[in-house]
Write a structure and sequence with these properties.
By secondary structure, the chain is mainly alpha-helical. The model has no long low-confidence stretch (mean pLDDT 91). The termini are far apart. The protein has 10 helices and no strands. The protein is globular and about 60 Å long.
Length: 262
Amino acid sequence: MVLVIKRRVFNRFIISLVYLDLLITAELLTISNLIVYGIFIHLITLFLLIIHSALTLDREFSKLLLALTLAPLIRIVSLTLPLSQFSYLMWFILVSIPLYIALFTCIYTQGLSIRDIGLIPPRLRDIPLEILIVLLGIPAGIIEYYILKPGMLVDLKPGLQYFIVPSIVLILSTGFLEELIFRGVMQFNALKTMGLYGLFYTSILFSILHLGNLSILDVILAFTIGLIYSIVVRKTKSIYGVSISHGLTNIVLFLIAPQLYG
């Protein structure tokens, strides 16, 4: 029985690596200015995951495969939306809408509870750790700024009121959304099907989607921060701290650092 379980976990891991390779291929094509081919591979990966999820008799693995469809979907939506017709802030909002719809559809069809995906407040004993992980977003944002050197996301007028709306958009459209996808739905299913390897798998997948930033240092940073987030969520059972931290990283990256260091 033990050998059967180990073989099943091994098979799940190998198949998951194949889909990881497809996503890497799609991203490499995209950053090589072969965007149409990159989108095509992402579409193929999306359909294969859907079909595989429907046909496999391994019901636990089926749920992971369905959760993984969110990864190529992120890139398909972000690559096909006509950015030039919208402001950067509006672009974040528009990209997040179909992703939220797909995410909550996945949660509903899998019958996941709010506890399963980390939508519960952290326990009192975990509050110090949650505060530390939130504060991690500040140095992470500064480091990523020096790696990528992006321009201002929006032209901020003087006054706190003009800073609030872009900050809320970044927290909801990047921090909360991406953490609910990766550390919520994906990690929950990955841990059930691959054990602790699921933490590394989710973190690698998260970092792969940063290849489009054209910096291997940013990919390494994304993997490192993603793995820290994964470990924290596994311990605290809550994604609120990492969501705020993730959002704070992007606030520093796109709003604060360009003004201070640009």
